[in-house]
Amino acid sequence: MTRYLNLFLVILLAACAEKTSENQAGITAFAETTSVEQLPYYQDATFTPVWYESEDDLPSDFHQIPAFNFQNQLGDTISDQDLKGKIFVVDFFFTTCPGICPKMTANMALVQEAFKHDDQVTLLSHSVTPEFDQVPILKEYADEHGVESGQWHLLTGAREQIYELARNQYFVEEDLGLLKDPDEFLHTENFLLIDRDRHIRGIYNGLNKTSVLQLISDIKTLKNT
């Protein structure tokens, strides 16, 4: 009996140690994020930061995400007008992706959880295979991955518009995207942070949890400005 009890205690202690290690990793990741009072602006694919005291100081021709119009997983139309006054996070994925997309979706879910029921923050995941990822496919994917309709929109639409926005407006592939042919497949792990006036305020590695935690911190900064 004593022998089985000792074995049980060893297993229990090992499990607790593993859990403590996981918790410590999470604490370390949070500690590595940097909380700042002001975020830079970005206006081109080099992502060179530009600093202004306020929106009023920006040049009138400073880069801004243009108008767009897509359908989400419910078949609702989502346009730039629906995001007026909102902070939004952008990424690009496809539902059949076996590689980086599941990890990106899991990390975007962390952002969703951090701002659950917060009507100031919206998440936009654009399909890069919209010809396949029609509304029913996106709805199934949303259900499988805990996507909260109303806050996190999985978007489909014209491929040309999605790729134009991705490469030439969001600069999601950074400067490498500007060298690609429009027909080349778009695949990137980057998340973009866009402010209430559709200016780019950050780029983050959507596969890296520390980077995603920094994104969450930066959203909080934008909310307070």
What structural keywords apply?
5 helices; Glutaredoxin; Thioredoxin_domain; two-stranded antiparallel sheet; Thioredoxin-like_sf; SCO1/SenC; Protein SCO1/2; alpha/beta; copper; 225 residues
Sheet with the most strands, sense and barrel status = 5 strands, mixed
CATH topology of the largest domain: Glutaredoxin
**Number of β-strand runs:** 7
CATH architecture of the largest domain: 3-Layer(aba) Sandwich
Helical content stands at: 25-40%
Please identify the structural class as seen in this structure: alpha/beta
* Rounded radius of gyration (Å): 20 Å
**Sequence of secondary-structure elements:** HEEEHEHEHEEH
Strand order of the largest sheet: 5-4-3-6-7
> Uncertain regions: pLDDT < 50 for 5+ in a row?
1-31
CATH superfamily of the largest domain: Glutaredoxin
* Binned strand content: 15-25%
CATH class of the largest domain: Alpha Beta
| First-residue to last-residue Cα separation | 63 Å
**Domain module count:** 2
Shape: globular
Family: Belongs to the SCO1/2 family.
Organism: Algoriphagus winogradskyi
Protein name: Protein SCO1/2
InterPro entries: SCO1/SenC, Thioredoxin-like_sf, Thioredoxin_domain
